[in-house]
Amino acid sequence: MAEMAREAPNFRRNLVLAFGKKPAGVDYTEAAAAGNLVDDFEQVWLEKMVDADGEVDDLERALLSRIIEEG
To answer: What is the pLDDT of residues 45-56, one digit of tens each?
Structure first.
């Protein structure tokens, strides 16, 4: 393929025309930041879980930590 690319100067352009451009990659930093946001569903769930048993377990503690970080 490299040899073909050297022999045909428009090889890369022709590949793009034939097959289209590769889709943009995932922005993992943005995805991670969005995943760390606490949504309304999680907030309601947390309130119900703490109210149900009056104790804070590991999962609830992790969610509380995220809420505090968002401050």
So the answer is: 888 888 898 888
